[in-house]
Amino acid sequence: MAIEEPQDLVPGERIAGRYRIESLLGRGGMGTVYAATNDLTTRPVALKAIPLGPELHSPMVKRFRAEARAMGRISHPNVIEVFDLFQERKQLFLVMERLHGRVLADAIEGRRMPFVDACRVIWDALQGIDAAHAKGVVHRDLKPENIFLCEDDRGVLVRVKVLDFGVAKFAAGVGTTLTATGALVGTPYYMSPE
Predict the structure, then answer these.
(1) With b meaning 16 or more CB within 10 Å and e meaning fewer, what string describes 94-130?
(2) Do 89 and 110 have their domain in common?
(3) Which are the catalytic amino acids?
(4) Residues 90-114: pLDDT tens digits?
């Protein structure tokens, strides 16, 4: 059964009684992302939303909840922070810190990154991945689109954050797996050969 796509949220609209929508940030395979502000704390946030169909336990919903659990377990400056997960208006919302900058894929498209900057990006991303592994979380889709370069107002690199744990896997004994036997997860171009 096809999932009925909910209407986009519009600027000024409130969701969950406290998040005021500012703009649409983007759409991807796992949902729509909005810029919003928590009216209670005045904190700028990003809301990632996926539609809920009649089946609340679909693989997509399970992955979304697993992403929230995976990201919620990790507290590290090089991993995007998750604040909340809630359901409203036939959608499931993941509330995350709002980042300013661009993904690594955009930064390197058609150009070389200076060696020193590249080393810093790699080092910081590895610190985030190490923190995830320490909590029993394996990312499984690390690629330039999932590495965010946080920049200041002048475009200077401030911090690197690992994003999108949507296909993450908990290490044995830590949680359940959502991958069917023999199924490939991740982005083929960036997968390890094994």
Answers:
(1) bbbebbebebbeebeeeeeeeeeeeebbeebbebbbe
(2) no
(3) 141
(4) 898 999 999 999 999 999 999 999 9
